TrEMBL record, chain A:
Name the record gives this protein: Uncharacterized protein
Sorted UniProt keywords: Membrane, Transmembrane, Transmembrane helix
Species of the source: Nocardioides gansuensis
Membrane spanning residue stretches: 16-36, 42-61, 81-101, 107-127, 163-184
From TrEMBL, chain B:
Native species: Nocardioides gansuensis
Family according to the record: Belongs to the ABC transporter superfamily.
Keyword Transport: yes
PANTHER family xrefs: ABC TRANSPORTER, ATP-BINDING PROTEIN (PTHR43335)
Taxonomic lineage from the root: Bacteria, Bacillati, Actinomycetota, Actinomycetes, Propionibacteriales
Protein name: ABC transporter ATP-binding protein
Molecular function GO labels: ATP binding; ATP hydrolysis activity
Length: 186, 286
C-alpha cells in the first residue's frame, strides 16, 4: 500500500482542483491585511478562516473520476487520505501564518477548531453515499460556524452546541474521527 | 495476499436485493454465470446499473449474497482480492481533463496496485492501442471527443486482462465502426474470463453474447441464449396494413406496414421473429 500511495502522490496532486486552495489562501491574506487593527475582526477572521479552511479540506477529497475508480483495490479511504495529505499543508500554513499567529492564545486553539470542523465534515462525507456526502461534509463547517456567529445568543443546549467545535474541539474531533473510521470500514 | 489461482471467473448471486427508499431496484435476483460474454438487456430503470454496480463490488446489496471467483465481497480482504481481478466501466464517468489518456490509464494502474513502472507503461500502451487510441494517447483528454473519452475509460477497465469485466453500456457514444472494434475487443477479453455488459442494443447482444439476461422492474424475466430469446417470438409476429388492437404491441415499419407482436389472430401473415421481438415479448408472458 505504501508503494502504491507513494507512486500515486504526483498524479493525485494533478487531479486536485488547486484554484480554490489558492483562492482561499489569497482571501485569508487579503482579509488579514484589511482587518489588521480590529480586535473583533481578529475573532471573526479566526472563525471564518477555520470554517473556510475546513470546508476546503473536506471538498478536496472529491475526486471527479471517482466513478471510474470505484472498483480499484486501493480503498477510497486511502485515496481520500492521500488527497488530504497533499492539500492540507498549504491552506493550514497560510491560516496559521496570517491568522493564527495574531491570536492572543497563539495558533493552537485555531488548529484545534480547524481539526474538529474538518473531521466533522469528513465524518459526514464518509457516511453518506457517493459524492453527495462530500458536498454535505464540505458545507457542515461553514454552516456550523455561521450558526455560532449568528445564533450563539440562543439560550441553553442549542447555543452551547453551536459552539462545540470551538469550546470542545477535542471531543468533537475525537467523535468525528470515530465516525470517519467507522464510515471508512463500511 | 491470497495465492488462489483461478482459470476463469464464476459469478453466483442469490436473492440479491437493493432498494432506494420505497423503490426496489433489484428484487431477489438469482444468477449463476460462467465464462463468456453475458449481455444484460432491459428498459431504463429496470435495475441493470444497480445489478452491475453490485457485481462490481461498488454497491453493497441490502439482502442476498454474491460470490465472485468464489470470494465474498462483504469481507473486506476478499473484496480487495476481487478488485485485483476485476475491470469496471461505469455508465458515465468524468475523467481528468488535464491528463493524457496514457497518464490517466497509468494512474489507474497505480491504484490497481501495479507498482512496476515499466510494466505499467507497456500495459497502458497496450490497452490504449487495443481501444484504438494509439495516436491519441499523448493528447489532453479535454481535447478528445465523447466517444474517445469513453474508450479511455474502457482502456482503464481492461488493464491487466481482468478475469471479470463489468461494463455498463460500453457502446454509448461509439460510432458504428468503433462498436465493431469494441465487439472484437470484448470477444478477445471473454477468452480469459467473464464479461458482463449492459446494453439497450439487441444487435450488440446478438453479435456478441453467449448468454442474455433480460431485466424488468428489478427482476430477471429471461435468461438464455440470444437464439432462445428470439425463439420466444416464434409464431407471435405478424404484419398487416393497419393497427391491430389484439396485439400486445404494434408499430409502423419503414415501408408503411404495421408489425405486431402478441397472440396473432386467425389468418394473420406471420413474419420471421427477431431478437427485438423476443425481447419485447420477454416481459409479457407467453
Amino acid at each position: 500500500m505504501i508503494a502504491v500511495l507513494t507512486q500515486a502522490v504526483r498524479p493525485t496532486a494533478r487531479t486536485i482542483a488547486w484554484r480554490p486552495v489558492a483562492g482561499v489562501a489569497a482571501g485569508l491574506v487579503l482579509l488579514s491585511v484589511l482587518l489588521v487593527e480590529e480586535d473583533r475582526a481578529q475573532m471573526v477572521m479566526a472563525w471564518l478562516g477555520a470554517a473556510v479552511t475546513a470546508s476546503l479540506l473536506v471538498a478536496a477529497i472529491r475526486d471527479r473520476a471517482s466513478r471510474l475508480l470505484a472498483a480499484v483495490p486501493t480503498p477510497l479511504s486511502a485515496r481520500r487520505l492521500l488527497r488530504l495529505a497533499i492539500v492540507a499543508p498549504v491552506p493550514v500554513a497560510v491560516l496559521v501564518l496570517v491568522v493564527g499567529l495574531r491570536q492572543p492564545d497563539g495558533p493552537l486553539p485555531l488548529l484545534g477548531d480547524v481539526t474538529a470542523l474538518t473531521l466533522a465534515g469528513l465524518g459526514v462525507a464518509s457516511w453518506m453515499a457517493d459524492e453527495r456526502g462530500v458536498a454535505w461534509g464540505a458545507g457542515l463547517p461553514l454552516a456550523w460556524v455561521a450558526g455560532a456567529q449568528f445564533g450563539n445568543s440562543s439560550a441553553g443546549a442549542v447555543g452551547d452546541a453551536l459552539l462545540w467545535w470551538h469550546t470542545d474541539s477535542l471531543v468533537v474531533g475525537a467523535i468525528a474521527a470515530g465516525c470517519v473510521l467507522l464510515g471508512a470500514r463500511r | 495476499m491470497s495465492t488462489t489461482v483461478l482459470t476463469y471467473a464464476r459469478v453466483a448471486v442469490s436473492a440479491l436485493t437493493k432498494t432506494y427508499g420505497a423503490r426496489v431496484a433489484v428484487d431477489e435476483v438469482d444468477l449463476s454465470l460462467g465464462s463468456g460474454i453475458i449481455g444484460v438487456l432491459g428498459p431504463n430503470g429496470a435495475g441493470k446499473t444497480t445489478l452491475l454496480r453490485m457485481l462490481a463490488t461498488v454497491l453493497a446489496p441490502d439482502k442476498g449474497t454474491i460470490s465472485l471467483n468464489g470470494l465474498d465481497p462483504r469481507v473486506p480482504a476478499e473484496r480487495v482480492e476481487i478488485r485485483r481481478r476485476l475491470g469496471f466501466l461505469p455508465q458515465s464517468s468524468e475523467l481528468y481533463p488535464n491528463f493524457t489518456p496514457l497518464e490517466l490509464v497509468d494512474y489507474v494502474a497505480v491504484l490497481k496496485e501495479h507498482t512496476d513502472r515499466d510494466w505499467r507503461r507497456r500495459e497502458a500502451t497496450r490497452v490504449l492501442e487495443a481501444v484504438g487510441l494509439a495516436d491519441r494517447m499523448h493528447q489532453k483528454i479535454r481535447t478528445l471527443s465523447g466517444g474517445m473519452q469513453q474508450r479511455v475509460a474502457l482502456a482503464a477497465a481492461l488493464l491487466g486482462d481482468p478475469e471479470l469485466l463489468v461494463l455498463d453500456e460500453p457502446a454509448t457514444g461509439l460510432d458504428p465502426e468503433q462498436r465493431l472494434e469494441l465487439r472484437s475487443l470484448l470477444a478477445r477479453s471473454a477468452g480469459r474470463g467473464t464479461v458482463i455488459l449492459s446494453t439497450h442494443n439487441t444487435a450488440e447482444v446478438a453479435a456478441l453474447c453467449q448468454r442474455v439476461l433480460v431485466m424488468r422492474e428489478g427482476r430477471i424475466c429471461f435468461t438464455g441464449t440470444p437464439g432462445e430469446l428470439r425463439d420466444l417470438a416464434d409464431g407471435r409476429v405478424w404484419e398487416s396494413g393497419g393497427a391491430d388492437a389484439t396485439a400486445l404491441r404494434s408499430w409502423m415499419t419503414a415501408d408503411g406496414t404495421f408489425r405486431h407482436i402478441g397472440d396473432p389472430p386467425a389468418g394473420a401473415t406471420h413474419v420471421a421473429a427477431t431478437l427485438d421481438d423476443g425481447y419485447l415479448l420477454s416481459g409479457a408472458g407467453r
